[in-house]
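Question: does this match?
>
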Amino acid sequence: MRTFAITIILPPAAFLILAHVLPALLEAEWVMWMISLVLWLGGLAAIATSKWKPPVQIVAGVIYALLAMPLIPLTALFAVCTTGNCI
């Protein structure tokens, strides 16, 4: 459950909180990319330290690495749009 929370729930929740609490922070593109990178690496670390069997960790890590990197920045865009500051 911890791995699921870190990999799936944390990135959108972090961006939603940042967009509503510190909206100017997500306006800088490099800051958004750095936050995305930290969340992505955190997800990979959560998978690597999970109690799953090694083959399952490898498959989950590859799938997460390929799907999460393009999707995490989209959650940032969604978070900014929820504040009414959409493009």
User: Anything to note?
Assistant: The helical segments are 2-21, 29-48, 54-82.
